[in-house]
UniProtKB/TrEMBL annotation:
Residues 43-254 form the Aminotransferase class I/classII large domain. It is an enzyme of class 2 (transferase). Its EC number is 2.6.1.1. It comes from Rattus norvegicus (Rat). Keywords: Aminotransferase, Pyridoxal phosphate, Transferase. The lineage of its organism: Eukaryota, Metazoa, Chordata, Craniata, Vertebrata. GO terms for molecular function: L-aspartate:2-oxoglutarate aminotransferase activity; pyridoxal phosphate binding. Residues 298-343 are annotated as: Disordered. InterPro entries: Aminotransferase_I/II_large, Asp_trans, PyrdxlP-dep_Trfase, PyrdxlP-dep_Trfase_major. This is aspartate transaminase. One of its GO terms (biological process) is amino acid metabolic process. Homodimer. Its cofactor is pyridoxal 5'-phosphate.
Length: 361
């Protein structure tokens, strides 16, 4: 049989297993430690499953009221609310004033994908992405695939073996103005009040758009509120930003692709992973309008509640997708798979004549 030409010149991919892990496994030392692994393990080296996850799985199995029906387009409302309260505080004024909201999205990379897609389409002046972290290579690839120019910076102090706030501020002074700034694990940096003030002043003066990544809230300082307190500083000063948050490390549910992505008036994107019965699908329906506010945009999203709810034309809805979109050269917009929504095979994000509006058809 003649080989397929499309695969003839494709090189064999390298094994995904890192060289450090391979060396570790080959080492027969009784006191060896592997510090580069990003998951929680028991002292015996076995996968760790938290007690609350075990208990929840038993409750799910015994609860006859649970089902596998479609979630509302924006996701499970109670879960989104809980996730936002976790980030901004249960009595957050931003939540009370409805300046913050959430949307289900699949995985941490899904949140970056959706945020990058939004910025690429509606903020074409933002072309440069600066990443402050050496721990999230995947998000850099996502932005690069979207056509952004990506620069990576390290704020690690090799002498004191910690993240250095002084290096962080120095790096911030040298990154291009008008950039997207991806900040990972910022809670590892112990900023003083003066350093926080200087950092925010630089971000504001250089019109930098922050994109925060919180991969394991509470595991840095041991306090959930302390690890996210800096977000409240940014909100109180009127900053607009995206934020991606994952709870997979907190609960040890790495293979559970359940998450939320959030949009707020300050355009915060929040991504959380949690064990739900309902898998997040690529559902798109109705019409979505996102009116831009200031330099980053004000996003109004009316979340549908209940199963089988049909959006009426003109109602604002949130667009969700758990995979990269495809752009066809013969289309004027970005094509999205709808994941088998009855009566709807595909949808398009079309750039309208008015640049401050987003319509979904």
């Amino acid at each position: 049989m003649t080989s397929l030409s499309v695969f003839r010149d494709v090189p064999i991919a390298q094994k995904l297993e890192g060289s450090l892990l391979k060396i570790y496994r080959q080492d027969d030392s009784s006191v060896k430690m592997f510090l580069a692994y990003k998951v929680c393990m028991t002292e015996g080296g076995h996968p760790w499953v938290s007690l609350v996850v075990r208990k929840t799985r038993l409750q799910i199995a015994e609860d006859p009221s649970l089902n596998y029906e479609y979630l509302p387009l924006a996701g499970l409302k109670s879960f989104i609310q809980a996730s936002l309260e976790l980030l901004f505080g249960k009595h957050s004024q931003a939540i009370v004033e409805k300046r913050v909201g959430g949307v289900h999205i699949v995985g941490e990379s899904g949140a970056f994908q959706l945020g990058a897609q939004f910025l690429k389409i509606w903020r074409k002046n933002l072309k440069t992405v600066c990443i402050i972290s050496c721990q999230n290579e995947q998000c850099g690839l996502i932005f690069r695939d979207m056509g952004f120019t990506v620069y990576e910076y390290s704020v690690w102090n090799s002498t004191d073996l910690c993240s250095d706030p002084s290096i962080f501020v120095e790096v911030l002074q040298h990154i291009p103005a008008g950039s997207i700034l991806v900040i990972g694990n910022i809670s590892d940096c112990r900023f003083t009040q003066n350093q926080w003030t200087k950092l925010m002043s630089i971000i504001k003066s250089k019109q930098i758009f922050p994109f925060f990544d919180i991969p394991c809230q509470g595991l840095s300082t041991g306090d959930l509120e302390e690890d996210s307190k800096f977000l409240q500083h940014f909100v109180s000063l009127g900053f607009e930003f995206f934020c991606s948050q994952s709870l997979s490390k907190n609960f040890g549910i790495y293979e559970e692709p359940r998450s939320t992505s959030g949009a707020k008036y300050h355009l915060v994107w929040t991504e959380l992973e949690a064990p739900h019965l309902n898998p997040v699908s690529c559902e798109v329906g109705g019409e979505c309008e996102a009116e831009s506010k200031r330099c980053c945009g004000e996003h109004h999203a009316d979340q549908g509640e209940g199963e089988g709810e049909t959006p009426t034309p003109g109602d604002p809805w949130v667009v969700e997708s758990h995979h990269p979109t495809e752009r066809n050269p013969w289309l004027s917009g970005t094509q999205l798979s709808t994941g088998g929504v009855p009566g709807q095979e595909e949808a398009y994000l079309l750039a309208q004549d008015q640049p401050d509006q987003l319509h979904l058809h």
